[in-house]
């Protein structure tokens, strides 16, 4: 975690967000009966408003449908070329009006063609919420999703997600990262709602908003600190743990030495494992309680730079760059 907070408050806070994400089976079941396409954003929003009265349910319905029906456009990601028609705005009153019109057309194309990159997901969710009179924002910023990103500060923004106001608070939602699309599997969806109503303390490990206000943290995290953090995976979001904030994503250690990881909170009823990049199997992680923290000492016998990952079951949840020293 990046904030030093009271442990009991942290547990309540994380459980609160987890509870929000788990109470929508009734909404998902209804949305599963929706058509696979809508003629317009208004028609999409009207269908949701017909079925639900609470803002929280409406947002969940819009998010759930988008994440299960809009396919990520990997070709556009790699080439920068969209298959959408060229957007032309002829009449506008100023920059704000121009960009609002442009973004709504882009969101409409996302709905029509059922494919996009992150900006399309975020804009579509925004405009559906706007149609339903729910306060929403598109958050532009940086996402860290590769171990090679650790310690490398990106100059330009590369991701977009949403902040939406319901249940008397702002909620952070990433519809793009919920789809589970894969480049080699067309029309494949492996939906995961870990990035629905993510606590600010956890999402800041992978999402850095350009406007610091949307960190929703009392103590703001700098861009430098964001990039020197370890890499987290989706599995991390659902785990009841917090790494000591002094642990960085790049760890220097002596050959034949030990890597020491400290956790402020970790569920010791679970079994965790670790593995280096070329290991053929993982090794169980041993945790020792030292004061109020849990400590793991992992032997390092390599002589070259390496990558270390931690696992819960077969799923990785944290990764680090390891640099040997003499």
From TrEMBL:
The keyword Iron does not apply. SMART domains: TGc. The keyword Signal applies. Residues 1-20 form the signal peptide. Residues 110-177 form the Transglutaminase-like domain. GO terms for cellular component: cytoplasm. Keywords: Signal. It comes from the Bacteria. Pfam families: Transglut_core. This is Transglutaminase-like domain-containing protein.
């Amino acid at each position: 975690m990046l904030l030093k907070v009271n442990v009991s408050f942290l547990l309540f806070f994380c459980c609160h967000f987890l509870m929000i994400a788990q109470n929508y089976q009734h909404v998902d079941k209804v949305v599963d009966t929706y058509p696979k396409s809508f003629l317009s954003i208004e028609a999409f929003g009207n269908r949701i408003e017909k079925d639900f009265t609470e803002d929280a349910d409406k947002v969940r319905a819009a998010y759930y449908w988008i994440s299960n029906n809009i396919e990520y456009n990997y070709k556009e990601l790699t080439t920068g070329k969209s298959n959408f028609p060229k957007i032309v705005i002829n009449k506008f009153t100023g920059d704000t009006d121009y960009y609002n019109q442009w973004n709504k057309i882009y969101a409409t194309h996302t709905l029509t063609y059922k494919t996009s990159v992150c900006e399309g997901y975020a804009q579509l969710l925004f405009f559906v919420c706007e149609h339903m009179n729910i306060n929403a924002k598109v958050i532009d910023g940086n996402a860290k999703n590769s171990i090679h990103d650790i310690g490398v500060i990106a100059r330009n923004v590369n991701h977009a997600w949403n902040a939406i106001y319901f249940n008397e608070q702002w909620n952070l939602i990433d519809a793009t990262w919920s789809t589970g699309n894969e480049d080699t599997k067309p029309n494949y969806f492996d939906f995961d709602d870990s990035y629905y109503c993510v606590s600010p303390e956890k999402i800041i490990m992978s999402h850095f908003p350009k406007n610091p206000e949307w960190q929703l943290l009392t103590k703001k995290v700098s861009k430098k600190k964001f990039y020197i953090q370890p890499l987290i995976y989706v599995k991390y979001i659902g785990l009841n743990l917090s790494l000591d904030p002094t642990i960085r994503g790049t760890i220097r250690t002596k050959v034949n030495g030990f890597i020491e990881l400290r956790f402020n909170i970790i569920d010791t009823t679970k079994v965790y494992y670790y593995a280096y990049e070329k290991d053929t199997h993982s090794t169980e992680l041993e945790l020792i309680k030292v004061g109020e923290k849990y400590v793991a000492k992992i032997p390092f016998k390599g002589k070259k730079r390496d990558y270390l990952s931690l696992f819960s079951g077969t799923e990785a949840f944290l990764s680090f760059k390891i640099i040997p020293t003499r």
